[in-house]
Amino acid sequence: MSEQPPEGIRGAATSSHEDAEQAMARAMAHPIRARILFLLVDEPDASAEQIAERLGKPVRSIRHHLSELSKAGLVEPTKERKRRGVVERFFRVTAPPVVEDQQFAKLSIIERLNVCTQCLRQCYAVAADGLARGTLYARDDMGIVNQQAALDLQGWQEFVKVNRLAQKEVERVKSESAERLGLSAEEPIWVASALMWFELPPPGER
Fold it and tell me: Which of 48, 52, 69, 149 would give a disulfide with 75, using CB separation of 3.0 to 4.6 Å?
């Protein structure tokens, strides 16, 4: 029988976890910090100078946002190097930039709008890059599906569940592929997947 930590310790751990998730939600609602997090997922071990160049923002501004993200526990330094007499720090994310349901529910309408805007911008940027480079339509078994439907409440709940299961399956495939690639010399296939489920206005109001 495993020992349970004292109630106070359990409560502190839960609170700390919730604080980290809420910090992620707030960061994802910020136009610059969300872009930094997305960039660090694609390019781990990036410096403030590199991020500033990619985003077209002043280095001083990026350093400030990295400092705030670091205080929130969302990014962490990985290494340092001296360049022209200045210490250059490199960062990575501590967790994927994902906003969980409970944290999303606590956001204001404006913050929700900002989170969705940043996520959609990232999805569009990835798809546009694939379209421009020809990789989006290179494989015969690629897919783009856009479905719209009228559902009752039960149907909506099932619709959400099906999409969440698909999301979990994608995470499983990613994890297992990473393990196999780590044991082989096979070249990775870089892929993208976007899942969305949301309410539409009635047809007469679109």
Answer: 69
Q: What angle do CA 119, 174, 107 make, to 5 degrees?
A: 30
pLDDT > 90 in the chain, percent: 71
Q: What is the extent of the structural domain holding 70? A: 1-135
Other Cβ atoms closer than 10 A to 41? 13
**8 Å CB contact between 107 and 115:** yes
d(CA 32, CA 121) in angstroms, rounded, equals 12
pLDDT in tens, 73-118: 999 999 988 777 778 899 999 988 888 888 899 899 999 999 999 9
Which of 80, 67, 77 has the alpha carbon at shortest distance from 44?
A: 77
Give the residue from 110, 135, 160 where a domain finishes: 135
Per-residue pLDDT for 43 more than 50? yes
Q: Which residues are CB-neighbours of 163 under 8 A, at least 6 positions away? A: 195, 197
Packing angle between helix 31-42 and helix 7-28, nearest 10 degrees? 100
Give Cα separations from 177 to 29, 44, 50 (angstroms).
Answer: 31, 19, 29
Among residues 135, 157, 172, which one ends one of the domains? 135
**What's the rounded Cα separation, in Å, for the pair 40 and 97?**
10
Q: pTM, whole model, 2 decimals?
A: 0.76
